[in-house]
Structures are given as structure tokens and as C-alpha cells.
Amino acid sequence: MQPSHSRPSSSASTRPSSPASIRPISSASAHRPFSSRPPTSASSRRPLSSLSTRPHSRYGQRAKQSKLMPSCHALVAQLTGITDEDTLKAKVDYVVKHVDPSSATTRAGPSLNLQAVERHVRGHIQRAKINVRDEWAEALEHSYNSLKHRVEKNVDLDDTMRVDRLPDHLQLLLLLANPPAPSTLAYASALLDRLRNPAAQAQGLTWAQILAEEPFEGEHWKGAYGLPAHAVVGGSDEDERADSDSSAAWSESSEEDERGEGDESEEEQRGGEGVGVNLDGEVEVEVAIPLRYDHRDRIEELKARQYWRPEWRPDLDLSRGFDIGDASTLGATAVRSASTRSFLSSSALIPTSQRYIYEHDAVREILMALQGRQNLLLVWTHQGFTPAPDAPRLAHLSLTAQRSLLASFARTASTLARLRTFAAPRHPALRTLEAFGAALAREVRVCDAWCAAREGAGGAASLLGLEKRLRDAFGGVYGVLLGVASRYASDGSEGEGGVGVPAVVAASLLDALLDAAGRYGAMGDVRVPRALLRVLARTAEPLWGMVGRWVRGGPGGLEEEFFVEDNEVGLGDAGFWEGGYTVRGRGRGVPVFLERVRDVVVSAGKSVGLLRAMGLDVEGDGGGRWRRFEELVGVEGEQGEGEGAAMSAEVLSQAVYDELLAPCRRAQTSLTRVLFGECELMRHLSAVENLYLMMQGDDMAHFSSALFGKASRGQPWTDFHFLNTSFSDVVDARAGKARWIDSTLVRLAYRGARATSRTVRVLDGLQVEYAVPFPLTYVFGPGALRSYNALFVFLLQLRRAKSVLDSILVRGAGAADELKVFYAIRSKLSWFVNTLLNFVATYVLHTQVLQLHGLVQKAESLDEIIHLHEDHLEKICSRCLLRENTAALHRAVLSVLDMSLYFSDCFVAFAGDNTHDISRASLIMTRRHRSRQQRRLRRNVIGFSQSLLPVDDDSDSDSDGEGETAPEPSFSVAASVSLAEEGFFERLDKMSSDLDGLVRFIRRGIESLAAGAGDSGQVFGVLAFSLEDWDR
């Protein structure tokens, strides 16, 4: 745009326009420069034609608007990007029609004055302040004041914008304005910064700088500016002497000048520049620095905004009456109304303070209170935050409404303050409680950061809006956290339920957090479960670290908060594995999410400790990084919006189980390999079974025959030396790999009463011990060996009765009629004993041993091996009637076995020594001195034996019999057989009836056990089926 000149208009400029003046401009004239020659007189005096009075055509109107055409064309092209010529032309015509001031469309619109525009601008400034955008409001106000200042001086803004058209320009800008963007706020901040810290202007070269450059070199400086000759370097000696003569005069004149200048004002002396010469003859230049007081104005401006000062007053007219269009008149009107009524003059509706502040300032005070800082609206008492009695008023709220809002914020601020108190470091304290306090502190810092962000955020600054945003952001998170923390406010000494065990306190705290998260999650809440899971993850971090050290490093330095307790049991003790390390508090010290993996964790730590004691390490333990519990749960960071936000107790337990299973199994498998390899678990297991369960039939039969031979001859058999020597002789007879057990590891002893009675119960005092090497003592502990010994004695009792019955011989044909009764009773006794022995050996021992071997070889941990072994022994003992629930049946079986010994004594008393010794020594002697008569007698020996068939079985049962009492026999096994009182046949009849009663009692008990649930019922069903043949 070409600059315009302000020359006065000529007379030619006032003439009416001719038709030629409105013709279209040709292309040649459009590019031809304007002519500057003055108009001719002929043209000025030419009469008007009739065309000059015609109305302007539409074509002429567009030609008149051609001045705005280029600008409108460029504007439309840039905003729309239209390339089609016809469409672009139509758009340009539309814009020109509505923009041109002379058009009918524009003139029809209302024109604003400067006062109306100022109200609009002030409204934008007030809105910016309400939205807590102070910098934007201040920059907008400063810009408008600067523009207004120029308008007041009646200075045109530029060559094309006149002052009288300024309201229209501002109206256009206001209509085109968009809401402030981040770039707008950034520009406003930069503008204020430039205004407050103006950049120093670059100064050009001044005479003071030139004169300050000493010394003055060159002859051209001589005499210049009144400089003395001695101040110039490089002159001749004559000139210097001549100049030295005049130096005194020059100094005198300078003194007079200085005295003359003494009358000048102080401001002129400060603002001027002077050049002087000191005593040494050097030139001194003084530059005065003007004094500025802009900082004082800035200080006063800041003081005017300090609403907390007692003398500060808002820019409000509190004396106005109530105006429904102005909310600021509500509060003062309500106070005046309450004070004028006598019945309300002493009520709480009359405020104690007449101070008023803006609502955005009240919002800032509430934000400060939420952060625990001193403020004007809320004060701290022993009950928490309460509204301050002299709190400033809000002009647009009644006293009741203001107190209600402040009470709501006071509750939230009190909750946050109490959480800060709990989160403060305390000593001493449990590590879990310290972590809980740190987690609470982080959650409180989230609220503090939110409050700090709200001070600089946009949006309307109102107390109701702040309360809604606070509720939407946090909900009831802090109230729930305070409820959990209030139960552990005394360093956990009480804890939940008054339990003072640190592990129980830590577990109950974690369970309370997890339970609260589950309850609020079930109600559809999202914020509370997220916050509780964040706190839970950070609170459980110390316990999680203890679990990691236990699983990867084994026992050592266990803390009281850890759920594993050291019972001070030595590693070499047989009860170490079971009782050395146990769970504290009878299981209450384990959090819910660790319940599923508790036993695995305890076993893994003991396995690592045992391997370290044996000088071994865990196989495949690469020492990788132990994941933090926050990473596992997925709630890292301040907000923790990860996957753990919706994690339930079941999901968390599964995640913990999956995380711990791999390292625990690695430790357990490493120990299992050592047990099967270096410790030879299977070899020792076979040795124990061959010894106690008499699976090695030949050797154990020879040993029992030697034992029974001494007992039958009435010789002492309980001697320690005899028992161990007899067993060693039998075992050592095998050489090399055929030797199934190391006899040095076996020790037999008799710890019962004197074995003088003719009963199988005397064998109860026989004790067999097997020295199991370490660490297999954990598998074959004292309890297991006691069960094995009970089985050994029971099997020995069955063999004793069988050997006695098998040794009875029937000699001669003459006594056949008398011996029929003996033969019948002997057959019954032998049938029962052999049936029971066959059941125990085949369906109990053989089946369970095969099943145990298969399961043990698949076991992955020592705990699993111990559990399988104990379950194996429990099944065998229960099916051999050696448990308390089958004690009556066991006594009945022993009575039948004792009856076998008594029957043998009766037979010997009746027929003489007509028995046959089937011991190993007797067989050897018979084989050496066998005669024809002995071979004939051998044919008359009646024995009962049956083949053992393997039958599968894998279960147990605890079902009892019918509760009957075992019938007692009518004879005494301790008394000697005598015929004085009654004869043999009477005694045999009683013995037969007693035997029938005992067997029937045993059969009923076995049938009741067979009717029980489980696999043991099937096993006892086999014995019950066999006993049904008794009545046939």
C-alpha cells in the first residue's frame, strides 16, 4: 500500500464525477504510473452532462469497490484454498459486499462506540481471571490500555486506520477471536516478561567513550576540544613546553568554570556528562546514571493484589441492593436482611467477619488447605480442619452455603492431614508399616501435585467446580486409606484383632488393603481399587523381598515380619525338615495372595539351605533379577494405570503363584536329584521294605525260624547278642550284590517284659532299628520307623502262629478217631491264619510297595516324597488293623493267634511230643539223617500255603467297625494245660466255639470297613469275601 500525503485537497477534487471517471480501468492504465500534472482549467470549467445525474450502475459499484478487491481476494484464497475461478470470484464478491464500509449490508449493522468495546474487553479480562489465567488477563489489559493511551493522544495507529474507525476494527477482532490456545497463553507470558524485563538497547559510540580512550595519540589532537598539550602523546618538545606554560592558566580557568557550575541544579549535574583532569593530569569522564523507580510501581501493583492483607478490599459495591442479574449482591443482601430482623440477630446467620474476597482467591486458599498449608478459610484444631470463624466472605454466597462448602473441604483436608501424620517416619516401626507409610505419602503427593496443577489450569475457578473435580479425580480413596491406617496407628503393636506378632500384623494389613480393593471393585468403583492396589504393591515390597531372599538364598537372618519362623532345630535332627522352619502364627502370618504358594515357598527355602549345607548349589540358578512386586502387579508410576487396576484377589494369587513356582521348583528338583543320585534313596527304601515288611522272604523266614525255635524250646530268645548275631548270620550268608542290606545298619533289641508267656503278644517288645544315612533321616524319621516296627511285629506274630500250626504232626492210624477233633480245629485255625497272611502280603504290602515306588520316582520335591511315604505307611497300617479305629479287630486277631499257640500246647499234652520242627537248622539236620521212617512220617505233616497273586490297590480308609467288643476266649494263655478240671474234648469244644465267635466278629468288622467309601473299601472287600467261606 502506497503512503498517503497530507497535502490539502484542490478544488478539482470537489467536482462531481463524470461518466468517464467511472469507466473501467484499462489494462494499460492499470500499469501506467499516476500522472502528477494539475488539472486543466478547461476540465474544471466544463459543464456537467446529463450522465452525471444518473444513478450509479451495479458495474460502477463494483469498480468503486475494487480498492478492497486485492485484499479480499488474497484473504479468501488463503482461508479457503479454492482454485476454481468462478467459485473464487463469487466468494470474493460476497466478502467485498459485507466488508466494504459503504455497502448497504455493512451500514445496516449497528456501530459500537469505544465505551461499548471497552466493556467487551473488560468482560474478556474478567473471564480470564475467573478461569485462573492471570497472565493472559494481565497481558490483555496491558495491550488494551496501551491502545487506549494512543487513542487519548489522538494519534492514528497507522496510515489506513483512523481513530474514529477504531471501535469497528476492535469489534471485528472480537467477533473473529477464538478461545485462547496454549500458544496464546505462551505469547501473553512472553509479552509480560518483555515488559517487566526490557532488553538493553545497543548504544552507539558517544563522545564520552571517545574521550575515555586515553592517551590521545597524534598531532591532530593538539588543541582539539580544549585539551591541554600534555594530554596529547606524540607532539614536539617545543609544543610541550609551550603547552606547559599555559597549563596553569588553563587550570585556573577550569576552577572558575567549576565554581560557576556550582549553581546548577542537582538533576543537571546527575544527568550531564563532564570531562575533568585529576592531579596526575589524567582526563576523567563522568557519566551520570538516571534514577528509575519502576520497581516501586511493580511492588505497589503486587501489593494491590495481596488479598490476604487486612486492609485489602475487593472491587465490589457491597452497598448495592439485591440484583438478580448480579450474583455478587446476594451475600451482602442476606447479611443485611438477617441483621434487621430481631429474631435472627443472634443466630449463626450473621457473620463474624465483614471481609470479602474473590472466589478465585478462595479457590486458591482451599487448594493451599488441601496441601496442608496455612490459609484464610480453614484452621486446624484437635478435631481436624474446621472453617475459620473470621474467614473472609464470598459476595455471591450466603453464609450457610459458604459454611457448607467449607465443611466439605475441611473433611477432605483433615483426612489428608491425618494421612500425612501417619506417613511421617517413625522409629522403631515394622518395615511393612514403613512401606505403608511411604505408599500413603506418595498418594498424598499425588493430591498435592493435582492441587498445584489446578492453580495454573484453565476453567472457571469456583468452589463448587473444585469440589466436583476433586471428587471426580479421587473419589473416596483417602477416606478408605485412612480407615485402613487407623487400625495400625500405634506402630502395629496392636494390629487387627489385638495380635502383636509382626508377621500377623503385616499379613492383616495386606489382607485389609486387598479386601477393600475387592469390595470397592465389586461395587463398580474404579479409582479406589486402583489406589488401593498401588498402596498394596508398595506396602508388600519388603515382604516380597524377604520371600526372594528365602527362595534364592535359603535360611539365614529371618526377620520377624516374614511368615517363616526358625524353631532352632539342628540340621542333623531327624525332625528338622518337619519342625525346623514352620509358618508363624499358625498360618495367620501369611497374606491371602501367598496362601496358595506358602508350602512351596517354605519347602524351596529349606531345600536351598540343605543343598548349601551339603556343599551344593541349586542347578540352573542364573541369579537373574528379582522382579519388584509393583512390576508383578502392574501398578508402577504415580498413577498406576496398568493392568493391576482391575486385579482381584484370585488373579493376584495366580500371578504370585506363577512368579514363584519356577524358582521354587528349581530348588526342589535340585535336591530331589541329589537324593536319588548321591544319597541312593531307592536302595535304602528297598532295604527298609525288605527288612520291616519281610519282602526278602527267604532270609527273613530263616531268621524268624531261628527265633521261633528258641521260643518253642523254652530257651531265652530276647538276648541282644543272639538277635543281632542271628540276623547277621542270615544276611552275611549272601555275598556280593546278592546282599540286600548292610547288617551293620540294623540293630535288634527287646525292650518288653520277660517273654515267659505262651502268647504272640510277647513279640510286641521286639524293636528293629535301621540307621538311615543323612539326609534320608527326614524321610525315614522316628515316626515312620515306629510304624515300620509295628508292621514288622504284626507280620512276625502271623508267622509265629503259622509256624506253630504247621509243626503239628498227625502220627499213626489208631488214634485217628480221637484226633479228628484236633484235626478239625487245626484246619480252622490254619485256614484263618493263612487267609489273613495271604491278604496282608498280597493285597496290602505288595500292592502298596509297587505303587509307592512308581510315585516316588516321579516326585519333584523332598516334601512330596515325605508325604507319599507317610501316606503309604498310613494305608498299610490301617489295612493291617494297626490304628485306633480298628483296635478291637486287632485284639480279636491276636486272640486267634494266641489260640493257635494254646491249641499246640493242648495237642502236645494229649498226643505227646508229636510236633515237627521246621526251622532252618532242623531242616538241615533232617536232610542229613533222613530215614525211611522219617520220610513216611513226613507224608503225614499237614501244612497250609497258598500262592501270592499281585493285586493293585492304592487307597486307604478310616472307617471303623460296628463298635462291637471283641469276645474274650474262655481259656488263659498264661496258664499251663492241665486235665484236672476238664477233659480235652470239653476244652476243644469251648475252643471251637470261641474261635467261631472271634472269626465271626472279625468278619462283621471287615464287612463294615468294606462298606466304607474309597479304595480301601475295595481292599477290605477282598478279605470280607474270603471270610465268607468260614460258614461253608
Automatic annotation (TrEMBL):
Stretches for region Disordered: 1-67, 232-279, 948-969
Boundaries of every Gamma tubulin complex component C-terminal domain copy: 681-938
Pfam name, any one: GCP_N_terminal
Taxonomic superkingdom: Eukaryota
Biased segments, Basic residues type: 55-65
Chief localisation class: cytoplasm
Entry keywords, A to Z: Cytoplasm, Cytoskeleton, Microtubule
InterPro entries: GCP (IPR007259), GCP_C (IPR040457), GCP_C_sf (IPR042241), GCP_N (IPR041470)
Gene Ontology, cellular component aspect: gamma-tubulin complex; microtubule; spindle pole; spindle pole body
The keyword Secreted appears for this protein: no
One record GO biological process: spindle assembly
Biased segments, Acidic residues type: 253-267, 951-965
Keyword Cytoplasm: yes
Subcellular location field: Cytoplasm, Cytoskeleton, Microtubule organizing center
One example GO MF annotation: microtubule minus-end binding
Ranges of biased composition (kind: Low complexity): 1-54
Domain Gamma tubulin complex component protein N-terminal intervals: 363-676
Protein family (similarity comment): Belongs to the TUBGCP family.
Database matches in PANTHER family: GAMMA TUBULIN COMPLEX PROTEIN, GAMMA-TUBULIN COMPLEX COMPONENT 5
Protein name as annotated: Spindle pole body component
Organism: Neolentinus lepideus HHB14362 ss-1
